[in-house]
Specification:
The chain has one helix and three strands; from the N terminus they run βββα. It is an alpha+beta fold and 60 residues long. It starts with a strand and ends in a 9-residue tail after the last helix.
């Protein structure tokens, strides 16, 4: 199964997203958005950013 973004409403009534791997494990989650459209835009931003992302170790 392919990975997918899930958009959902949290207990506070805000919209959030989570990215699930093909095995169903949550590998990333987003901040709270006022609208569902905002959460969708958050998903799209992650998709764009991840395409060119590098891995950087910040602790020694």
């Amino acid at each position: 199964m392919a990975s997918k973004f899930e958009v959902y409403k949290d207990r506070a009534g805000k919209f959030r997203f989570r990215l699930k791997a093909g095995n169903g494990e949550v590998v990333a989650s987003g901040e709270a958005y006022e609208t569902k459209a905002g959460a969708h835009k958050g998903c799209e931003a992650v998709q764009r950013a991840a395409a060119d992302a590098t891995i950087v170790d910040v602790d020694s």
